[in-house]
Design goal:
Blueprint: H1 2-36, H2 41-64, H3 75-103
Helix pairs in contact: 1-2, 1-3
Amino acid sequence: MSTLRRTVGGAAVLLAATTLGATLVLLAGFVYQLAAGDATGALAAWAGGLLVLAVAFFLLFGAMLPDEPTTPSEGWVDVLAFCFVLLGLFVGAPFGIAGYEALRPETTAVAPPLTEPR
């Protein structure tokens, strides 16, 4: 049973960190748009929802941790969880960038049609 708990905990921390990485990029995009004066509420809503999801995954990871170590050599589990968090933060950034590009407002200007001189 402890192997299953470790596997679920590892998957939960990886998903949590990936979601957190995407959230941070979306929040950065929202702050950039806020400073530029054309912020959309969709970015803030998505970032808030992803933040709640990241907290839920971190809570699941915390629930999967053993109450007390069964063996004295449990230190590698902590190192593995830390590496999963770093990996998730890096992996989450492209998802956040893709989400920012999908949710940002259209900024291209359309030139007026050319008319022939009379």
